[in-house]
Amino acid sequence: MNGNTAAHQAPRSASRSPHAVTGLWVVWVLLASFVCSTGVAGEGPVEVSGAQEELNKKAFDASLAGDFEKAVQLLEASLRLGELNVTYLNLGRAHAKLHRCDEAHKAYTQTLNAPFVKTPSKEQVAKVLEDYTKELLTECGVSVQFSCEDVATELSVDKMGRQACSQPWLLFPGEHTLNAKLAERSKDLTFVVTRAQSDEIAVRFEDEQGKPTRPMSPVQLWGWGVGGAGAAILLTGLVLDDAVLGPMVSDFEAAAERGDHVKYDELQSSISSTQTVIITLYAVGGSALLAGGAMVVYDLFIADEPAASTSAVFPLLGAEQVGLGWSIRW
């Protein structure tokens, strides 16, 4: 059976049915096929010792018999004699059969960086590893949901394909990298996934002044409205003061100089009424302008302070719920 066949037919069961036995043999041949590998460690394929060959053969027999615990012990013994990529691969597979998610994932992550054998090739091992990892992720992964203030934000985790923020990710527990993209802007961050229950991960972009972009809050909307109304009232008072009261005072002074008592009394009453209106406009307009400004300042600089930390870590993702390992403010 050639290497290509071994790389594409991964075992899915430990039963003794003819199909399952064939599947086990195809993959576990990876343990035996490196016997003829030669070379210098660190520069090319490594040489496999007779003791490693014997341990790997016994591990194959144990797996064929459904004794994956014994297979794990034999493969770990083989690794103590020397690390090999295919040994890590099959150790991870044995752990997966025992439903040991963390141990299986750890062995898989060590596969590509371990010294490699000549046969099967690194490419063939990588292909089998990809299939095994996808299967393990389906069984052991944690569903992670992100929350983006802008629905147009697109995310990529661990350099995997990019998708909309609303789509959940299935990830292994541990540290991951996230790239968020919104139009021409892009941000990278690191977050941690565990199996502890928590909230979704909030993703925010900051504007050029360093504050996160977000929709205007009701408080800020009211603040701008009240402040704008106050400014308009003040402007009305200024117009009355200049365009109405000013000429009225001039006429009053002229009537006094002429000794026109009728006109004098009439203007005196009108001036008093107009001054009362203008003072009221100044008081109401100024108060509204100050109140509106205070609401805007509060919303922009004070209301957000409890969430101002840029790296607040919380208990992370639950096994059944999407969760948050990290609350992020860029």
How would you portray this structure in words?
The structure is a single chain. The protein contains nine helices and ten strands. It has helices spanning 3-8, 18-32, 50-64, 68-81, 85-97, 101-111, 122-140, 218-258, 261-302, and strands at residues 142-144, 146-148, 154-157, 163-164, 169-171, 174-182, 185-193, 201-203, 312-313, 326-327. The strands form four sheets. The protein has a four-stranded antiparallel beta sheet, with no helix packed on it. Strands 1-5 form a two-stranded antiparallel ribbon. It is rod-shaped, with a radius of gyration of 38 Å. The model is unreliable at 1-42 and 306-330 (pLDDT under 50).
Quick description:
It is built from nine helices and ten strands. The chain is an alpha+beta fold and 330 residues long.
What characteristics describe this protein?
disordered C terminus; two-stranded antiparallel sheet; Serine Threonine Protein Phosphatase 5, Tetratricopeptide repeat; alpha+beta; 330 residues; Immunoglobulin-like; 3 domains; 53% helix
> Going by CATH, what is the homologous superfamily of the largest domain?
Tetratricopeptide repeat domain
What's the CATH class of the largest domain, please?
Mainly Alpha
Overall helicity: 40-55%
Mean pLDDT: 77
Strand element count: 10
Strand order of the largest sheet: 4-3-6-7
Which structural class do the helices and strands define? alpha+beta
CATH third-level topology of the largest domain: Serine Threonine Protein Phosphatase 5, Tetratricopeptide repeat
Low-confidence parts, pLDDT < 50 over ≥5 residues? 1-42, 306-330
Radius of gyration: 38 Å
CATH architecture term of the largest domain: Alpha Horseshoe
Distance between the termini: 55 Å
Helix count, DSSP H or I runs of 4 or more residues: 9
